[in-house]
Amino acid sequence: DPVTGSTVPLPGGPSAEGTLTVGAPVFSVDTNVTYVVTVTDPDGGVTTRTTVVLVPGSGLAVYWVQPVGVTATRWNPSSELQVVAILNVSDGEILEKRWSATYWNGTHYQDLDLSDPAVAVFGDQNASVTIKGGVLPDGSTGEVTIRLTVVTVTGTRTVATTVGVNAPPTGGALTAVVAGAVTEVQAGRTQNVPLVNLDATGWVDPDGVLPLDGSAAPLLYYFSYVDPATNATIALSTSPSVVPTLTGVRAPVFAVDTEVTFSVVVTDADGGSTVRTFTLLVPGTPAPTLTPSSTATAVANRAPSGGVLTGAVVVATQVVTGTNDTDIAVSVVLVATGFVDPDGAVPGTGSGLLYAFSYIDPVTGSTVPLPGGPSAEGTLTVGAPVFSVDTNVTYVVTVTDPDGGVTTRTTVVLVPGSGLAGSWGQPVGVTAKRWNPSSE
Question: Per the database record, which ranges form the PKD/REJ-like domain (predicted)?
Answer without folding.
Answer: 15-282
